[in-house]
Write a structure and sequence with these properties.
The chain is α/β, with parallel strands linked by helices. It folds into 2 domains: 5-275, Rossmann fold; 291-430, Glycogen Phosphorylase B (Rossmann fold, 3-Layer(aba) Sandwich). The chain is built from 19 helices and 12 strands. The protein has helices at 5-12, 18-25, 29-41, 47-50, 52-70, 117-129, 141-157, 165-188, 208-216, 249-257, 305-318, 331-338, 354-359, 371-377, 391-394, 405-414, 421-424, 426-430, 435-447; strands spanning 83-88, 107-112, 133-135, 197-200, 221-224, 243-246, 265-267, 291-296, 322-325, 346-347, 361-366, 382-384. The strands form 2 sheets. It has a 7-stranded parallel beta sheet, with helices on both faces. The protein has a 5-stranded parallel beta sheet with strand order 10-9-8-11-12, sandwiched between helices. Helix 5 (52-70) packs antiparallel against helix 7 and helix 8 (165-188) packs across helix 9 (208-216). The radius of gyration is 23 Å and the shape is globular. The two termini are 27 Å apart.
């Protein structure tokens, strides 16, 4: 893993605390590595993260009052399902698409509690309309108080410097883990003999206690990968679950290169959240469009804002009729960060879908990896610009970096060829798009004994 500094940093984050964690909670190395991921992410802690017991206590009170009033089923009831899907009430409603690939399989969905309380009501309404069993277990005050007591015992036993920032971060991460660990133990208590497959939307965050507890029970877990990646990232490495359903052969090669056994990696297809729009009408040519170029932004951060501004200035100086589309979840913040560098561009209205913007644009430049799935579906000529250079990937796919983006942008805008190298390699790059093939792969995997 020498090519990935993030992974190396993640693995050493909790080195000093490893023995304490093993002794106090019997955590295994993979679970400690998952906690290390969170410790690395939480170097800059939010208010909620700084006071986990307070805010999860409030979450407990609010959800246990509202969920019964809304008619949400808090108590999990499993029977003979082929699989259980572990998800959460995330604003990105990925879970609703699971039915597109399940065929005649029987399944239930368990949504882990989080702070998106209103989303739980929307999820419940959707699944009831679809006649799908969905459960919404809540955090009890007992779960919170028990976790607080566990942490106090741990702190008393730990002789390391508890004033150090690393300890404070680790303490917050551990607090959240312990709260959810208690919730998961409550959920699984009656299902130690359940023989269906356990499919998880993620493997870290509050999913880590699920993986840990199921592993302790001798149960296998599978991560249904929720997005694309182009280098090893802390979301997916090291692989905490027993197996992963990844998006493409390209990603499978990365897993194997990073030491994951080939039999643990199965290729499924494009991410779950992209399946609903799989029937986009492909374009046959580059007929006259409202815009010459659509720019699809990813999240803007302190680390990449100057690079994005540089690229925008170059495009602004050479090309007209350019439409700029922001990432919906960070739109307001991103617009502020980019300031006057976006003044000359048309800005996509929030009411427009990405498909609509693609269909009214002649060419596309994207900073977002996940957007490539939608671009490929409509056969748009496009260019993917890395804000950081990853040589291993560039050898496989024709994309742009900060070193060559000017040349690549000009080639895209001046070319008359609809299908470029990236589109020809679309399936290898983003994954299979045919829902029937994806469904067949998923059903076969669930029915298999492996």
């Amino acid at each position: 893993m020498d090519n990935n500094e993030d992974i190396i940093k993640m693995e050493v984050v909790l080195t000093d605390y490893k023995n304490y964690l093993k002794e106090a909670f019997q955590l295994d190395d993979l679970t400690i590595a998952a906690l290390g991921v969170e410790s690395e992410r939480m170097k800059k802690m939010s208010l909620i993260q700084r006071h986990p017991f307070l805010f999860h206590g409030l979450l407990s009170i609010i959800s246990n009052l509202l969920y019964p009033f809304w008619g949400l089923n808090r108590k999990v009831h499993l029977s003979n399902e082929d699989f259980v899907f572990i998800s959460s009430t995330d604003p990105v409603f990925r879970t609703k698409n699971i039915g597109l690939i399940t065929g005649n399989l029987s399944y239930s969905i368990i949504h882990l509690p989080n702070f998106h309380i209103k989303q739980a009501k929307n999820y419940d309404k959707y699944f009831k309309n679809q006649n799908i069993k969905a459960f919404f277990p809540t955090i009890s005050l007992f779960n919170v108080l028990k976790a607080r007591k566990q942490l106090k015992r741990f702190s008393k036993a730990c002789t390391l410097d508890q004033k150090a920032n690393e300890y404070k971060v680790m303490e917050c991460v551990l607090s959240i883990f312990l709260i959810y660990d208690n919730v998961v133990k409550d959920v699984l208590r009656n299902y130690t003999e359940f023989n269906g497959k356990w499919i998880l939307e993620h493997q870290i965050y509050f999913y880590a206690p699920v993986v840990f507890n199921l592993r302790s029970l001798g149960k296998k877990t599978t991560m249904l990968q929720h997005g694309l990646f182009f280098k090893p990232t802390m979301d997916f490495f090291p692989l905490n679950c027993d197996k992963v359903l990844c998006c493409s052969e390209r990603e499978k090669k990365i897993y194997i290169r990073e030491g994951v056994e080939e039999e643990r990696v199965k290729v499924l297809g494009i991410p779950l959240q992209t399946l609903t729009s799989s029937a986009h009408q492909k374009r046959e040519g580059r007929e006259e469009k409202e815009y010459n170029l659509l720019l699809l932004l990813s999240i803007v951060t302190d680390a990449n804002v100057s690079l994005i501004k540089e690229i925008l200035r170059y495009i602004q100086g050479k090309y007209d009729k350019v439409l700029l589309r922001f990432r919906p979840r960070s739109r307001d913040k991103d617009m502020i960060m980019l300031g006057d560098s976006i003044d000359s561009f048309a800005i996509s209205d929030q009411g427009h879908t990405i498909v609509e913007d693609l269909q009214r644009s002649k060419n596309v430049i994207t900073f977002s990896a996940d957007a490539i799935v939608e671009i490929v579906k409509v056969n748009s000529p496009f260019l993917y610009i890395w804000l950081k250079e990853y040589q291993d990937f560039i050898k496989e796919i024709d994309c742009a970096t900060m070193d060559n983006y000017k040349e690549k942008v000009d080639q895209l805008m001046n070319s008359e060829i609809v299908t470029n190298k990236m589109q020809e390699m679309a399936v290898e790059m983003v994954g299979e798009q045919n829902i029937e093939i994806i469904k067949s792969r998923f059903v076969d995997y669930i029915k298999s004994r492996t």
